[in-house]
Amino acid sequence: MAVELPSHTGTPAGSAAGFVPSSDRPMIAISGLQRIYRTADGGSVTALADTSLAVKDGEFICIVGPSGCDKSTLLRLLAGLDRPDQGHIQLNGHTVANPSRDVGVVFQSATLLPWLTIAANVSLPLRVGGKSKAPSLDTNDLLEIAGLSGFGDKYPSELSGGMQQRAAICRALIRQPRVLLMDEPFGALDALTREHMNVELQRIWLATKKTVVLITHSISEAVFLADRVIVMSPRPGRVIADLPVQLDRPRSFDRTLGHPTFIALSRQVRGLLTGGEA
Amino acid sequence: MTDNVQGSVAQQVGRNAEPASNSRSGRRLRHLFPGSDRIIGIAGLTLVLVAWELSVHWLDVPSYVLPSIEEVARSLASGLFVSPADRTGYYLPLWSTLSNTAIGYVIGTVLAIVLGSLMAEFRAVEKLLMPYAFALQSLPKVAIAPLIVIWCGFGDSSKIAMAALLTFFPVLVNTFAGIQSTESSKIDLMASLSASRLETYWNVKLPSAAPFIFAGLEMGIVYALLGTIVAEYLGAQQGIGVTIMQAEAVTDVPTVFAVLVILGCVGVGMHLAISAIKAKVIRW
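Output (structure tokens, whole complex):
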């Protein structure tokens, strides 16, 4: 599970990527990314400054950073919901300009449509965004993987927060995207539900083998889930550390939490976050 | 005994104990008088009726100023306990008024939802139409009504037009506000799914706006009835407004009161009907 550090900052975007053999080509390649927001009083805020990152196919990475370090900005750029001011994002060799079918997004809140049943919510992506020949997953199969079988006919308000977020993950997976982007998906849940959801997410990930980028401000969540933990600095956001997590899968809270590697990594990440640039 | 305990607890925790004892007494009141809301409603109505009857009898108010309850009841009965096809009954004019109201209401609602949606979706349409919508709403409808009767004639169409006109504004403004207040996270979700503008409107924005639209519809139905009757006042062959005018012309005040009672009940009934539809549609 060793992972090489990315060094794609200088990689030219576009045609050059086509020469790289696909097995070596990163699923996500971010280079020199910059995003500047204009404020109401005419000033400007640099949200992201010169961010570079590469994610391999099937890799699970967690991005941690202090609040207000614009992790969400990075995710919105990855999802094609926002455009960078400078730099490039490539997804499987293609520059990201718009939302893509290859990407499933899980937002901070479950964002289920309250007037649709859980099954209708999960299958919503199949009914919008144009017809596609690409194979999709079966709603009931997905609900079963997520431990929601039997809840398809229920409405979101009848489900707990954790179950709603699991339904949202199903919805993000139904088009069989290659990449799953998750923006603090368990931030609104209580600690115990959150741990349970982390184990569930690992299980779903092991079953589907997507490339996952998960944004969180929980250090233990990041170290528990990730193949690599990316630490970002406060605004303007930059990658300040890229730490591989060499812990066997499947991980469980009982065993992993006390593992020396887990403890050492958590301490290292905490040090980076509290001490600023290390 | 319990009071003593409560008192000592109140002393110990100080101010915090006060709201607790308040809610306790409130619960006790509701426990003693279950359905107290309904009792208040019935008591209020009884009080009004008794005051009405007493003032008519003791102050010797003439019938053409304020008829007695008995006279009003007799007028109600004479118009209601007849064959629906009876020309002297209330059913024929009521049917005419209600059908015109319903047609105008539907037309006004459809126009308002379509235009309100376009205004919320396209800034140019908003800039173009919003000033006129507010200008139209600021005009006194009683002043517009004669124009509409001139344009549309004394038949049903002028009644329908007035009903549609009065329904239009509350539904328009609520549709616009409802669509604009769609949560941005839901719009982000649709964007992340590459949904088209129409798909986002249909799947997310319109359902999100539904509670607002229904608030407009509940107001609109009452206005629609009002619009129809105002148009009938200015000239009509039939309708409940005509019935009121005819009764007023011969100073048949009991009939005027009887029709007003019916209209009040119809207004409440229509409002309840819309609320029932709302409860069926919006279950989340």
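The interface with chain A takes residues 183, 185-186, 188-196, 199-200, 203-204, 207, 210, 282-284 of chain B (CB under 8 Å).
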